[in-house]
């Protein structure tokens, strides 16, 4: 994604314009709650408050900036229609509010965009054009269509109207929780944190605003610290997997943000699972990045009142279920083992009895006796079972070994070659 065709500088991003944007959004965008999260506080050591932007109609904060941009257009621009490039939340935010306002919207999405996102965007009334395998290739087609049809760009982040819309989140957070010591914000192109930092520092100069990126896409971190970085790789936080950060947003971040930190993929997975199991809410990878920062550096946030922006909850249910299983395995609550056994009647029952008598719960069994790497008079069992915790699982494995079974741990999903 390249910088916005709208020319502006950081001085045009102001607190007063964010306040005006808040007036525009009243009644059209949900004022989401910012609530204490005691169980996340116990997990992290901080006093955590969560801003639930996953409760918006489209499941993400992007509606705010999209609507402020759309309402800034004159009647001729509205009649011509708008265009955007997105594979996710921005597409739906633009489509939803353009449909509400009667503005024709064209959304260009990469061919490989998940069908559920394509369907949702079309469902809001937008014309969806599939082009290219990447956002850059989709952007090239969008440039062509914009020139051909004289459409107005709605950039996902590098536009002052979009930034002002996103900044309204900080107004709501500090109105609900005025004693926050820090606000932790995921960073993709930078529109969200640019708006939040501008508003937050105007309301409470002492509040720290800290941005979070995944280690695979550290674009703003590199700009903030003046370092050369590489942005590439498959990340679970695709919503913040931005190679080309905004020019305008970078100016604002350097002016108003206190720090930018990087988090690992595993910490984001852990955070998605924590939101689901502890808070009973859904966070996509980008939405969970703020919590990942707290888990990655407990000492920094311990004892502080920290606001987390759960910026979106649009995650594939299949991916979410996979993450839950992986986290159970990491916590030792789901154990997968391989057992070498003699091929005789009753062995499987004996193993299941050992596990059951120790209050383990067998959830999956695969019995191998025909593979060439299994002895002709033997068999191999792959068994997955639930345990209360890691220590409980280890006691069950020790009990099996005490009965002369050869047992080794498997990674979840590992199978016979």
Describe the protein's architecture and organization.
With 417 residues, the protein is an alpha/beta fold. It has 17 helices and 14 strands. The strands form three sheets. Strands 1-2-10-7-8-9 form a six-stranded mixed β-sheet, sandwiched between helices. Helix 3 crosses helix 5. The longest helix has 17 residues. 47% of the residues are buried.
Brief synopsis:
The chain is α/β, with parallel strands linked by helices and 417 residues long.
What are its keywords?
about 425 residues, alpha/beta, Rossmann fold, Alpha-Beta Plaits
Main β-sheet, spatial strand arrangement: 1-2-10-7-8-9
Structural class: alpha/beta
CATH fold description of the largest domain? Rossmann fold
Q: Which percent range fits the helix content?
A: 40-55%
Task: Give the N-to-C terminal Cα separation.
Answer: 42 Å
- Counted by DSSP, the helix tally is 17
**Which CATH class of the largest domain?**
Alpha Beta
Can you tell me the overall shape?
Answer: elongated
- How many strands, what sense, and barrel or not for the largest sheet? 6 strands, mixed
Number of domains: 3
- Tally of extended strands? 14
- The residue-averaged pLDDT reads 91
How much of the polypeptide forms β-strand, as a percent range?
15-25%
